[in-house]
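Dear colleagues,

As part of the handover before I leave the project, I'm documenting each prediction I ran so the next person doesn't have to rerun anything. This entry is a single chain, and its sequence is reproduced below.
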Amino acid sequence: MNRLQTRTGRGAAAALSLAVVAGLAACSPITTDRPYAASDGIRVEIADGVTAENLLVLTSAEGAPGAVQGGLVNNGTTDVTVAIDTLRFDVPARSTVLLGGETGEEATISAVAAAPGSLLRIPVGTPENATEVPVPVLDGTLSEYADHVPAAS
């Protein structure tokens, strides 16, 4: 085998490898096309076109009051009532209701049954059909949450 045949063989092998990798990459799902929680909270599918986004609870300690943070998104064509624990929120069609923070609706749980850093299992859904989901519990350690942790009573 001469040098030209060796270089040609290597080039063909490299081109084939590149084509196989490109072909496999094209078959892989694009991760960012899938809905995901882009923050510290979780994403919950509530009903067709209705989700809770970045849902979390802020508290100073287990047993202390907690502030529910996140957003309720209704991409549907009818108004929906969303239940989070004992709280109820009306979410108009094609709109978002923010919970907590500077501009969101106040959403307080009187006593959080989990310590910061753990998960709190609370019902989330519609008043007629809620499912218990594990919601992250955080405290004011992160500066973006420090001003939103309710004071212990």
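The mean pLDDT is 87. The longest strand covers residues 50-59.

All the best with the project,
I.
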